[in-house]
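Bumping with the actual sequence this time:
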Amino acid sequence: MTTSITTECSSSEFSVSGEEARDLRVEPAVDTVTLSSLRRRAVLEGCKWDPQVGDVDTLTPFPLVLKRSVWKQIASQAEQLTQEAVATEEEISRRPELLKLLGLPTALCRVLAEEGPMTPAAGRVIRFDFHYTTQGWRISEANSDVPGGFSEASYFTGMMAEHFPGLRPAGNPADVWSTALAAAVRRSGVVALLSAPGHMEDHQVVAFLAARLRECGCRPHLAKPEQILWRDGIAHLNTAWHRGPLDAIVRFYQAEWLSQLPPKIGWRHFFRGGRTPVANPALAVISESKRFPLVWAKLSMALPTWRALLPETRDPRNAPWSHDDGWLLKTAMCNTGDTISVRELMRPGEWLRTRLRVRLIPGRWVAQRRFESVPVSTPIGLRHVCVGVYTVNGRAAGAYARLSEKPVIDFAAADVALLLEDDE
């Protein structure tokens, strides 16, 4: 049985109390016929194959609306965060003693610390997750390695905008990213897009990006790392549907997962010693690590934007998380919020198991001071907001927005179109 979340109402009924209320609101939900059409198009044309998980719709039938001036503010901050991250990654990569503090898998850390040239980059995309809090907009983390959400942020958001005259998307990150990738491809334009078998959400991302790359004149192929052969640093695709050298690789396959593959796969060439450009590049895993802030004090750069927007982050051995509910825990390589641990939101047994894991391997965890997320009133009740701002090669390109009943934004959050309105 499907839980319907379409409700007819006036946009004036929904607001956020407080000073920021005029900057963030929702519009009324579209009718059931329109929503059904949007869902069908998202599945068939936008590679959104999971519009429903269990009894819960994952596509919200109303848009989140942000003032254009607010968007310009957080977009500019995302660009500054990108600039600081890229420069800092370069410095950390030259200092093996700092790499060891990031909680990366040992094999991956060893490859990053080696001498020799890094595999060239085919571009860079990062998504910074902004949250609406009592202290204004703050970020919880950077998705630097393999950020997703492109179909929802581009195709679904674009469709929703068609039904709300006067409102516009913040951008189209899939088109911007695909255009940047196509510009980095030489010769025949053969591109491999890698994802892990069994992860449908990842397959959605690469299938959607492949369609966009095809529109840009490329020849994309979906594959897995085991189907890539490295010869003299050049990547070759070895599949039933294509055999031959590649001009670029889009790696929607987490760096830590790659490092767990057998050495004979040649996974190290995705990071070092390869000659075929790869996106995202090897150094992206540095700012992807949630332990990234633990090395800031040892760097030459000040990282003013990161320090202003990211909550205080400590090694769990140096934070009072076990008795102070003002802290949360997460693993260094946390994906989709899967290891975010907040005592009051967990069953006692789950919390006990988390405490034991942290005590056993504290170097793979972080403690982060919690901020107070301000929920937004919507047709389906109060919801917490996350606006993931993409940067492509350093420039803001759009946003992937989500809503959650709880202050933690994880895999259970619903996708919502973010639209912009002019300031009055």
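The tokens above came from a reply further down the thread. Residues 1-21 have pLDDT under 50 and may be disordered.
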